[in-house]
Amino acid sequence: MARARFVRVSARKARLVLDQIRGKPVAEALATLEYTPRAAARLVEKVLRSAVANAEHNYQVRDLDDLRVVQAYADGGPVLKRVQPRAMGRAFSIKHRTSHLTIGVSDETNGAIAAPTPPPARPSTPPPAREERPAAPARRTTARRGSARGGDKPAARATRKPKEKK
Distance between the two ends of the chain, CA-based, in angstroms? Predict the structure, then answer.
């Protein structure tokens, strides 16, 4: 298993690359990453090579052709927030997203490396029940005299006589 943390690529973009290699043999995954035209592919390739090296060093896996990518996921990391000035005194916020890439490889023939488990998911709690509120009282629909809605002013304008030209 290998992990790269605080990588300057969004998790959404990294997942597009990780979905292509999940479940494939390591040799095929490396060939796929080599010809994938995305910046995240270079980062994922480094993590995959590190996972293979970890399997070779820590678990004494000798036959690297048997290794498969059993787990590949990207979690969101902290977001670097910046502000860019724009015209007429406005400010636009810029979010530089980071991610944590995790790749696990396994030797399926003899089970030398146990498949890594994903991080525990939070238990989903149901949303709190909404309280029923009493209905709001009905609004008045009639216009009041002299109000902002006009009242009887338009009628007064209609009865005026037009000015005579001299």
Answer: 98
